[in-house]
Amino acid sequence: MANEPAATAYVGLGSNLEQPERHVRQALHALDAIAHTHLVRRSRLYRTPPWGRSDQPDFVNAVAQVATSLPARALLDTLLAVELEHGRRRDGTRWGPRTLDLDLLVYDDVQLAEPGLILPHPRIAERAFVLLPLAELAPDLAIPGAGRVRELLAAVDQGGCVALDESGA
């Protein structure tokens, strides 16, 4: 990747089934193994209450910053492949339990709306489980069309979100 221009992307990670911490930690390693992509930093892991449906276990969430020369669509396709490797089955159920969820949150300052890919992530400003770990990495990041991460975080309910480890890497 030395001579390739790199985009900065932020990826949300989450799991609430089958040893969620293990899935998230393994996914962090998988991000660093993606061709033309390098894991720059990661947030701490957080235990967070479920969002959208409360009849499921708590989640373990994190955010990773990556540098990549992959186009946004190719990066997303690779993230979906990593989910599959972790047993994720997309059956149309929204906000349900999952072994691994990888969301492409932000890709540089790209604003995009096409089938299967909206950037920045359309619900980023509503979710403490995304904003809390993202604020560790980039509190002043301007989310196109939404605002700065620290301001968005101040406007959401962070109740029930608990850091599980000392610091990211």
Q: What is the count of DSSP helices, taking H or I runs of 4+ residues?
A: 4
Overall morphology: globular
Instruction: Give the class-level CATH name.
Output: Alpha Beta
The structural domain count equals 1
Secondary-structure element pattern, one letter each: EHEEEHEEEHEEHE
- The CATH architecture classification is 2-Layer Sandwich
Helix share bin:
25-40%
The CATH topology corresponds to: Alpha-Beta Plaits
> CATH superfamily membership, which one?
7,8-Dihydro-6-hydroxymethylpterin-pyrophosphokinase HPPK
Number of strands: 10
Uncertain runs are: none
Strand percentage lies at: 25-35%
Q: What's the overall average pLDDT, rounded?
A: 90
Structural class: alpha+beta
**End-to-end span in angstroms?**
21 Å
Our Rg estimate from Cα atoms comes to: 15 Å
Largest sheet: 6 strands, antiparallel
Characterise the protein shown here.
This protein is an alpha+beta fold. The chain has one domain: Alpha-Beta Plaits. 26% of the residues lie in helices and 28% in strands. It contains four helices and ten strands; from the N terminus they run βαβββαβββαββαβ. Strands 1, 2, 3, 4, 5 and 10 form a six-stranded antiparallel beta sheet that branches. Strands 6-7 form a two-stranded antiparallel sheet. A hairpin with a 3-residue loop joins strand 8 and strand 9. The longest helix is centred in the first third of the chain and has 14 residues. The protein is globular. The chain starts with 6 loop residues before the first strand and ends in a 6-residue tail after the last strand. The relative contact order is 0.22. Catalyzes the transfer of pyrophosphate from adenosine triphosphate (ATP) to 6-hydroxymethyl-7,8-dihydropterin, an enzymatic step in folate biosynthesis pathway. One of its GO terms (molecular function) is 2-amino-4-hydroxy-6-hydroxymethyldihydropteridine diphosphokinase activity.
